[in-house]
Amino acid sequence: MPAFGTGEIAALSTAALWAVSCQIHAILSRRLGAHTLILLRLPICIVMFGAWWGASVLFFGGGVMTAGAPAPTGAGGAGGPSPLALAALALSGVFGVALCDLLFYSGVVQVGARVALLVQSLSTVITAVLGYLFLGETIGPMGMAGILIATAGVAWVVGDGGTVPEGAVPPSRKVRMRGVGLALASALALSSGMVLSKQGLAEGVDPLFAALLRMVVAMGVFWPTAMLTGRLRPALSVVRGTEQDRRNFRLLLVASLIGPVVGVWLSLVAIGATKTGIAATLIGLEPIFIIPVAAMVERRWPTPRAIAGAGIAFVGTALLCLRDVW
Q: 166 and 158 in contact (C-beta within 8 Å)?
């Protein structure tokens, strides 16, 4: 295993920033609602990612394709992504961004960020299974052990009656299971988006361009739907609403910068500077990092069972991510 260096530090920083960003988004999802949160966040992220990708094109030789990427079959030698790759990335935006975020933050309202994030961490398990079924990837004995351990850890936390949303009374079992179900559905949507993204990126599409495309497609699906259902106008009123609304919007700007933008950049640095399995394992510490963050917001620590379950789930995730490293 390589020495602890730039890639590992970037991966740990990614996990920490994503944990803080997730907690801020959780607060805003309870204040504004999941639909409003996503409707406002998507254009913010598009502007930030668009500026980032544009700077990479102007100053660092970036583009739609990575440097040296071969022209895909049927592209006529143009060197651009094939229609199949673009379609896969577009669908990954629908599942991995729009649907995933809506389900996740709806679940956060029910069970809080800490539990919802831990349940969503099962996306690593689901992605491995989908990769095995549709991409011909292998899991192996170590990966199977990781799947079982991660699932057991999450299930142990879910069964802990001490989990409560931040600043709320303990939810009923029905409400808690609804929130867990939404978070689990978001994990499935996230995994589907990751598998689709992998198919698109396999042709050499630039990761920044792919991330931007996914968000544009997600907004192209989410905003017209919100317009038809009457949710768009109330969401936009937050930008010029009360002083509290404006404070919420400024908080959303901060969360969007440190999570989807800086966090994604650090994750790319981590993947480029160390082995993918190691980077994924360290980034997978996000459900652990969010425990002290959520505790400071909630002003109560989770139960020992919840902390232990999160640790067990991380061990399982680590085994799954590192199965091709060791």
A: no
Whether residue 110 is contained in a domain is answered as yes
Residue 72 confidence (pLDDT)? 54
Residue 38 in domain? yes
Under DSSP, is residue 63 helix (H, G, I), strand (E, B) or coil? coil
Domain range for residue 59?
A: 6-68+79-321
CA distance 119 to 203: 32
78-93 per-position pLDDT tens digit: 567 889 989 999 999 9
Kindly report the pTM of this predicted structure.
0.88
Phi/psi zone of residue 5: left (φ > 0), alpha (ψ -120 to 50 degrees), beta? beta
Residues 165-194 as b/e (b if ≥16 CB within 10 A, e otherwise) read bbeeeebeeeebebbbebbbbbbbbbbbbb
Residue 326 lies in a domain: no
Rounded Cα distance, 76 and 74, in Å: 5
String of DSSP letters for 72-113: PTTSTT--SPPHHHHHHHHHHHIIIIIIHHHHHHHHHHHH-H
Average pLDDT value for the chain: 86
Q: For residues 116 and 296, give the distance between their C-alpha atoms in angstroms, rounded to a whole number.
A: 17
SS3 205: strand
Whether 1 maps to a domain, the answer reads no
